[in-house]
Amino acid sequence: SKAHRRGIYVYQFDSALIQRLAYRMKILTELKTALASGEPFFLVLQPKVSLTSGEPIGFEALLRWRMEDDSLCPPSEFIPIAEASGLSLEISEMVLSKTIQAIKLLSQAGFLLPVSFNLANKDIASPNIVNDINRCINEHEIDATLLEIEVTETQATEDYTMINPILREMISRGVGVSIDDFGTGYSSLSQLADLAATTIKLDQKFVNDLSCENNEKALHIVQMISRLAERFQFNLIAEGVETEHQRQLLIDNGYKYAQGYLFAKPMPLDMLVNWLQSNDK
Ligand code: C2E
Ligand code: MG
Ligand code: MG
Ligand code: MG
Q: Is ipTM beyond 0.95?
């Protein structure tokens, strides 16, 4: 009967919902324990390279979390849960401190290139994080130009009037500012003209779309963003370059720098130092 089917439907809906909630609760509980010790977290670093020579120009720090069952929980899963639960500032502070450590170790190994880290939504607006960044730079006596922050285009433009002056202050101290996932947000042209950023990062979606049979639209977007970066004097990095074909199309359209599996995957620091030493001739 209809009522019977509806009963089953409601039951299945509830069970999926309950499973999702239970999963979030498990992540959240484990996340709190993990954050208290800090130990299950580590950074992997992905080189940013020249599209033509493959030479590294810097690195992006990406967070990894090893869960109690030894599996790695991807940041796309635990960062949103952390944000919704008020834990994101704690994560950003931990990532900042691990990034500073990475900068020091890379410097000691002879590699003086900037390292960027990702800031969770809203954290850039927190006075804590700006103070932390300034304090870390002073305490550890690192060159501010070796540190970079990445904020998404959506973040930077949603709270533009509040965030843009903060980004500008960071830049005035020498810290780099990258606008992440560029092209997927909704910056207005007037915001763009005034955007406090040193670099924009073309979202990997567009690079991926370059490989499609009908890539005309993607090609137009890729070209427009390259002109825009040139006009407004932003450095430009393409994300997610996986194929030789994509590399060539990007070079043809004025791109100089990229990140992607074609060049190097994100690696723990010791592997990165090996990669750099074998790359360095
Ligand atoms: P994102 O900042 O845009 O980072 C780029 C993501 O693309 C990374 O995924 C990286 O591993 C991946 N990637 C790099 N090259 C390629 C490629 O050639 N092909 C493909 N398919 N993917 C590539 P990951 O590490 O899983 O991070 C995902 C997102 O999670 C990041 O996007 C960033 O938004 C967030 N995230 C990562 N670490 C942190 C962190 O420490 N703090 C915060 N707040 N967010 C983080
Ligand atoms: Mg990023
Ligand atoms: Mg990105
Ligand atoms: Mg992304």
A: yes
